[in-house]
Each structure stands twice: as structure tokens, then as C-alpha cells.
Amino acid sequence: MSPGSEQAPRGGIDLGGTKIQTVVVDAKNEVLGESRRPTPEKGGPKDVAGEMAAALREAAEQAGLGTTDLAGVGVGSPGDADEKTGVVSGARNLPGWKGAFPLGDDLSEELGVPVRIGNDVDGAVQGEFELGAGKPYDTILGIWWGTGVGGGLILDGKPWIGRGAAGEVGHIVVQRGGARCTCGRKGCMEAYAGRLAMEIKAREEVKGGAKTDLFKIMEERGRDRLTSGVWERALKHDDDLATKLIDRALKALGAGIASAVNLIDPEAVIIGGGLGVRFGDEYVSRIAAQMYPHLFVDDRPPQMHVAALGDLGGAIGAALLVDERVPTPTA
Ligand SMILES: [Zn+2]
């Protein structure tokens, strides 16, 4: 590449509780290659990092590149992701990841390029703000409805991470002393609406004698967990338990998101995540309907959108972590 020519492509990795999505993008954030692998359910951080590297190599190959051709790789990670050190700790939705693991250093060694680590939802929300549904606005609240319920905030054009942990809307309490959350506390929005929490609840209900096709559909699809696709299929067939649990989730989302809106007064709420993107506009409307009664200022609710970058949004947002202002070494 000659001096002054456009910037080298960048990699992005969205590390989720269910899947690892990778992309390679050009200077205009157009996707040149992408790959997806399931997140390992067993093992530990080293195994997860190995799958991440493999998936990124596949995306690079698809783009006709090797990983060392990239300017760098950005990673959106769950748990407590330290942007300065690249260490990720307490990623409780990942296997064997209760302690701290130097994910940035490990991947950088594996891939031969600089790696920057950020929070998964913050990255995805930044992506929507710069390139997707959040473009027309200055202040947005992102709600990432997937394995858990994550949140991200852009205030007056800038990401707000507080002391590192802002935006944890999933743990807004919607029912004091309510359902047990995967975080160990009770009554969190995520305890009703997170994919993992809904699956735990569905298994309990089946043990208690409830009838449902959820687990039959799961097996037919060769899955070992209730993915967003499994929920969608069951809902299309008016499965009683699936309908009941999703209605319960929507009520919790409505109350929790309204509480966050009452605090922040954002111009728009953007719903992303595995369930949010799959369920799309119809469910965003249903969430809005559950939210409106709880809004303190109810005559001008925020705009509601589905994340426009879809399934690749998290990975594209992660690629934005690679500093575009640093010129790439030229020959
Ligand atoms: Zn919680």
C-alpha cells in the first residue's frame, strides 16, 4: 500500500454468549468478509479465544486477506472489559470465565496484529450511532435483548460508560423480591427477559408439568439451547408456554426501559441483540406499548427502532474500536 492510500481493512469480533460473529471491514465500514461460530459451552477463556481467532481468520480469508494485513482488530466482549489492559473479567455468560483473562494480549499474539477490547453492547451501540439507526440523533439508549439484556448510552454524541459499568439496564429492578436473576440478585429486568433466564424458567415449568414444543423444536434443529430461532418458531405456532414467557418478558422490558427513559430522556431507543433483531419491528412496537404506561412524560415518547446493522452490528461496532486516526505503516 502506498503512502496516502486509504486505510488498511480492520477486523471486528462480537463475542456473545451464544455466538462469535466476526467481520473484516474496509475504511468505509463496508463488510469484506464475515464468519460466525458458536461460542464454546465448555472449557475456559483460552478455548473461547481460540474460536474467536479461528472465526476472524475465516472472515479475513473471505476478504482475500491474512490477519496481518489488518490495521487491527476490535473486540466487543461481555463482562468487565478493560479497554486499557485488554483484560476481561467476570464474563458470567461464557464458560469458565469467572476470573480475569488477558484476552487482548492472547488474541494479539494469535493473530499478529494489535487488538483492542471494549464492552460488547457499548461497541454495538456506537456502531448504530455512527452507521445505523442512531445516526439522526445525539442522545440514544441502546437495549441489547439477547442471552442477557445489555444496554449502552450515547449522551450528546459521546458514549457514557460511567466508571466502566454504565448502561447495565438489564439489572434495573422491575419487581422487588422477584425472579432470581443470573447475576444472583432478584427481580432484575434480565431475570424475566434474558434468553438464558427464559430458558431456565421454561425448563422449570416443564418439570412442573407444563406442555410446550420449545424443546422439541430445539432438538429438531440440532440445538442444545433455546435460541432466538427456536423461540420464534414456537411463537409462530402459538405455543402456550412460549407465548406466556415472551409476554412476561415484554412486560418486564416495558417497565425497565421506561425507567431508563424517565432518567435519561433519550431521543431514541434502539433495540438490538439476538432476540431484538430477530423479532424486529413487530416486537419493538409491542415493547413500546408496554413501555408507554410507565413514561412520566407520556406525550412525547422517544423514537423506537430496531438496530439497523442487524446481526453483524456488534462486530462492525467492535471494528470501530481500532483507532482510525493512527496511520497504518506503509512500505
Ligand atoms: Zn440481575
Give a structural overview:
The chain is α/β, with parallel strands linked by helices and 331 residues long. It contains 10 helices and 13 strands. The protein has helices at 45-62, 103-111, 120-131, 190-193, 195-207, 214-220, 228-236, 240-264, 273-291, 313-319, and strands at 10-15, 19-25, 31-38, 73-77, 80-81, 88-89, 100-101, 115-119, 140-145, 149-155, 158-159, 268-272, 303-306. The strands form 3 sheets. The protein has a 5-stranded mixed sheet, with helices on both faces. The chain binds zinc ion. Zinc ion (ZN) binds next to loops.
Helix-strand makeup class? alpha/beta
Number of DSSP-assigned strands: 13
Number of helices: 10
Percent in helix: 25-40%
Distance between the termini: 7 Å
Order of adjacent strands in the largest pleated sheet:
3-2-1-4-8
Bound molecules: zinc ion
Q: Report the portion of residues in β strands.
A: 15-25%
Unreliable stretches: 1-5, 325-331
Q: What's the SSE pattern?
A: EEEHEEEEHEHEEEHHHHHEHEH
The outline comes out as globular
Radius of gyration: 20 Å
Question: Would you tell me the overall average pLDDT?
Answer: 93
Largest beta-sheet characterization: 5 strands, mixed
